[in-house]
Design brief:
heterodimer; A: mainly alpha; 2 domains; two-stranded antiparallel ribbon; 13 helices; 2 strands; globular; B: mainly alpha; 5 helices
Chain lengths: 308, 134
Amino acid sequence: MERVLEIRGMLIGLYKKFDRIINPIGKFIISLIMVTKLNKFFGYSPLFASLMINIVMAGLAAFLPTSWFVLLLMAVITLQLFAVSIEATVVVLLVMLVVYLLFARIQPKYAMLILLVPWFYSMHIVYVLPLFAGLFLGVSSIIPLAVGVTVYSFTAYLPGLLELHVPNATLFESPDILIEMYKYLSLAILADRNMMVIIGAFSGVVIVMYFVRKLEINYIHYIAIGIGAITMIIAVVIANAVLSGTVSVGGVLLGSIVGMLLVAAFQFAKFSLDYNRSEKLQFEDDEYVYYVRTIPKIKAPTQQKEQK
Amino acid sequence: MGCTQLINEDKIKLMIKLASYEENEGKKDFKIMRRAKSDYISINSFVACVLASIAVFIIFIADFGSKFIENLAQFTDYDFVGDGIEYLTIWILIMAIYSFFSGRMYRKEYNESEKRIKIYQKTLKDLGKISKNR
């Protein structure tokens, strides 16, 4: 165990020393994967099929704030749909605008969660997110998680939406097409029981974990992760019964186990979002100008019990 | 050799803390602290509610548009007042919930900035004391 802690300390030390290089590269790689997956999912515009365009967008995203990256992805989706149907573009753009104004604008810190939910769904590890949010982010992460699940459910209805597109429709026919698309989407989303089951389960997990992690018990974070995973399974079973959903309990069980292991590993590594980073500072007093480079020390691992 | 005798290590540590804060969280905190607490919360909550209203009105327009176009032939019989009251009620409810949660969020943000600024000011005072005692 001590050897593992030593390796962890060494890795954290390396990260803190070179975070100015590692962070942009990490952001670039994640952005490239997200943008490439998004363009592959839509695939309507030949312009975005080019790897060069994806690299340029990922390069921009590496240096932009998260909220700008969200806007960049919204622009990509709009341009992709514009290649197929103007009416679908208008509908989807308005939906994204509503989501942005209602949620992403007021909680910019958590805007990334809205994007991560569909991405993690595509990798079949979405159950990591409520466990992570319950442990590290708190109750206010319920809303972006719920919105992310809705956005993911929405993507399933895109093919149906595009089927309502009428090629070579005149300007006078466009309002009818728009209304048909709006009705199709709103009825489909409101009738999606499985989406409500998942939102209910995710909310339950975050709330339970929020209260459990406040307890003063040794290894409480790992206990909270385990309780969160159990809560997920129970919540899905109850929600399926109440809302007549058909979410696979086996899939949730497997996903919760994988999520539990990943979040526990993350907790062990403890790359906190508010970590002390290395910095280059310059300041002066009456006698000297100081050029200082700060490199934070790695604290020795302590017991998980919180002290107040 | 002469430099190390003249440099006060405690003073350097305090100056590093101050410089690091000013480079990072301080930028945001100084902006927040320019306004009084009630002003900061009310202005930001108001802006959040205006943006949320725009989003809600987009949904209302889409809903109204779909109902209206469906019943275009009988538009003189359409219950505009009934629908208007329904939309107004929903809007008021959403605004009440939204302003409550946004107010709480901005209050928390202001309180946290205030705490950090107090620590910053205390550190400045400590630095001033060290400089005077030299």
